[in-house]
Specification:
The chain has 128 residues and is mainly β. The protein is 0% helix and 45% strand. The chain is built from no helices and 11 strands. Strands 2, 4, 5, 6, 9, 10 and 11 form a 7-stranded mixed sheet that branches. A hairpin with a 4-residue loop joins β7 and β8.
Length: 128
């Protein structure tokens, strides 16, 4: 079982920027190619899709609520993905999770069930 390691997050004000990181532990480089997705879960609500990127960065997908404000990236050589968030809004407040899938699924793969391995999540709180 692979546990992704997340960092970043915190308390910011509306309009601020923040970057989340997600490391895929693979010291033996045996994990192979994967796509990384980002999800978030506001308190008391269901987990929702935020963004996705393929292993070579060739395809990216975003939910309508973050499009134009969030940017997903992946340094495959360093097994580290990022979610850069700009112009944050109070409604972006949630626990954010990264996840990976190795089946090279086509399209946005916006369902949490599409992903095999997850991070433990990091809290982002945006005050108004």
């Amino acid at each position: 079982q692979v546990q992704l390691v997340q960092s970043g997050g915190g308390l910011v004000q509306a309009g601020d920027s923040l970057r989340l990181s997600c490391v895929v532990p693979d010291p033996g480089r045996t994990f192979g190619r994967y796509a990384m997705g980002w999800f978030r879960q506001p308190a008391g609500q269901e987990r929702e899709f935020v963004a996705r990127i393929t292993w070579n960065g060739g395809e990216t997908y975003y939910s309508d609520s973050v499009k134009g404000r969030f940017t997903v990236s992946l340094n495959f050589a360093q097994n580290t993905g990022y979610l850069s968030m700009a112009n944050l809004k109070p409604e972006d407040t949630a626990a954010y999770y990264c996840a990976v899938e190795r089946r090279q699924m086509r399209g946005p793969a916006a369902s949490a069930g599409d992903y095999d391995f997850w991070g433990l999540g990091t809290q982002v709180t945006v005050s108004s």
